[in-house]
Each structure stands twice: as C-alpha cells, then as structure tokens.
C-alpha cells in the first residue's frame, strides 16, 4: 500500500468525492513517535524497528523541526555515524500538512513531493499526527464500505418515503469553456421541477455557474458536485491546483488573476468568488498552493435571503 | 416592446430564432460584456445586448432567464454560438449598431412605446 490514488483522471469520480468529504484530521495517525534534536540516530533506528515505522518527526516542544526517515538511518549506518545526534542528520526543511485541509490536498502533496509521510499540524502549528499513503488508502476503503452499507440499508427507505435527493458529480477540464455551465443548467432545471422559488434558483445558479467557470478558467481541472435535498443545495468545487496563494485577495471584488484570453471571453472581472459568497447562505473556501482549492457553497431552499 | 420592434430598430438578423419570436415581450434591456455582471443582472423579460461571442454568453443568458440576445457592432458569432442558442432555445440576433447607439435607439423605442 505504497501508492495513493492520484486525485486526477485515473481515479474514479466517486473516489475523489470520498476524498473531498474527508479531512486530513480524519485519516491521520494521532499516536506518533517523536524524538528531540539531542536523540541519537541509533535511538531513532530503535524506535523505527520496534514500532514498525519508517519516519520519525523531530520536535522542539510541540513544533516539528525536522524529520528522520529510514533513508537517513541507512545512510547513517553506511557512514558509521549512528551515535551522532539527529540534529546534524535530520531533514530540517519539513513539509507539513494542516489537519483541516481536504484529503485530496494530501493526495496532491504525495504526488508533488517524493515524501512517504507528512507530519500533520493544527492551527497553532503544533504536531498532531502523521499521514502516510497507507492512512489514505485505509480511510478511502473504510469510507467506501460505509457508504455502500448506507446505500444498501437506505435504498428501500428512500423509495418508500419518496425522498429524492439529487446528486451529480461532474469532471471539469481546464479551459473547456464549451462544456462549463452545463452542470448549472441542470441544477436550474432540477430546482425548477421541484418548485423552488425563482429567486432561490437564481442564487443557486449564480453560485454554481461562477464556481464551474472558476474551475475551468483558473485550475488544472477538477470535479464539481451538486447535492439537492429537501432543505438545501450544496455545491462543491474541487480542483487539483495550482491553489490560491492569497485567499483574502481572491475574495475581494475586482481582484482577478485571469489572463487576457479568459478576459476576452467575458470572464475575469474579479467578481466570481465574491458573487458566490454573496448569494450563498453558507460559504467555505480552502486552498493549498500546489495542492488544490475546495469551495463549498450552500443555498437554503426554504429561507429567502435576498 | 416586442422583439420584432427591437430587431428592426437595431437592423439585426437572426442567427437562431424559433417561430413566434416576433411577439416575445421585452421589458428591460441589459448591456454588458462581463459574464459576472450579466449573471447577477436582475430583470424580467430581459434582452441582453453584448459584444461577447462565446457560447458561454448564451448559457449565462439562459441561466438568468433572459428572453433574447442581440450581438452588437456586427460581431461575427462562431457557429458554436448558434448551436448553443438552439440547445437553450434562446433567440440570438446579430445587430449592426454599436452598444451605445443600440442603447440610444432602444431607449427611444421604449419611450415611444410608453
């Protein structure tokens, strides 16, 4: 279990969808073995051997200052410096992951970097766990079987109660303006059929359309999910990067990174995300540079906010 | 105003229009070349004047429930645009005048109409 499913075309949309629903916090190992700078490489090697792990974070209090991997130990054995402290042989430029980001960000990180594990930190930058490809695979399998159980249990009930949830997942391709907007058109049709007030439909359609266009215009591609139940529309746009370096700026009206070609198509006014936020009852955005962006917008069907 | 009056005033030719388009009622006119602005424009029986010629304009107009689109300034629409217009059942015309002149002409028409 050394490979993680790539958050790209090779993995199924359903798998991606599972990964978007999970956060790194949900899948990481919280029981972690750490060492300080003063420990020896020999001690690290012993910890790895007796616990069956292949990497140990080096901490100063709660903060990660380095990491020692199996590779570092092997080099130490070769070089005969197992008695040295880890301070001089650890990798000190450590890439960490936030515990709050979607699992897909972690999947992207494993693709981008050659690391086999990432220390996970909380908002205060304190070490709270470690995530490996194995964690990801196990979590996806667990989630998949949980959902299958739910489907099996719930199917008959759903038919009985005539609860018809509308759930669609689309794949969006970079610069494919020809197809962008189709999901929104479908959403509009569905909401109309449900007798949703036209003002609410309009708000949902605006959020949906702007998000669809965003993925097509600004990302390397991604997925787009719509879920309509009795009370609300949930629209989720996930992409595989490049990520937004400054989310606050992106939320500012008029701020745009669109190129001339996108602008020539009538886009890139810098109103996309602000518009989505304005029309949504709930709005959430998360972005990791080189990892991806996730935007979730929820519009209540029953409460008119306009 | 109806669409026929508008099309005549703007000297526009149809790229796509179904039978009966002539009598479609137009109450408001929105002129813009920014998709985001078109998307949040609110108007009933709305006509969209634009110089954008991407199929996305048609989708956007359909999404907001616009009645018809007139391209200004004799913009050449790519064939894909008429195709999307057909899919969306969105009347699409190509007009000869520029945006400003089109707005003036439609303003006059609106006044005469009232």
What does this 3D model show about the protein?
The complex is a heterodimer of chains A (306) and B (114). Chain A contains eleven helices and ten strands. Chain A has 306 residues and is α+β, with helices and mostly antiparallel strands. Chain A folds into two domains: 13-135, CBS-domain; 164-300, Histidine kinase-like ATPase, C-terminal domain (Heat Shock Protein 90, 2-Layer Sandwich). In chain A, the strands form three sheets. Chain A has a five-stranded antiparallel β-sheet with strand order 6-7-8-10-9, with helices on both faces. Chain A has a three-stranded mixed β-sheet with strand order 3-4-5. A two-stranded antiparallel sheet of chain A has the order 1-2. In chain A, strand 4 and strand 5 form a beta hairpin. In chain A, helix 8 runs antiparallel to helix 11. With 114 residues, chain B is α/β, with parallel strands linked by helices. Chain B has a single domain (3-113), classed as 3-Layer(aba) Sandwich (Udp-n-acetylmuramoylalanyl-d-glutamate--2,6- Diaminopimelate Ligase, Chain: A, domain 1). Chain B is built from five helices and five strands; from the N terminus they run H-E-E-H-E-H-E-H-E-H. Chain B has a five-stranded mixed β-sheet with strand order 1-5-4-3-2. In chain B, strand 2, helix 2 (35-40) and strand 3 form a beta-alpha-beta unit. The longest helix of chain B has 15 residues, at 99-113. Chain B starts with a helix and ends with a helix. The interface between A and B is medium-sized, with 22 and 23 residues.
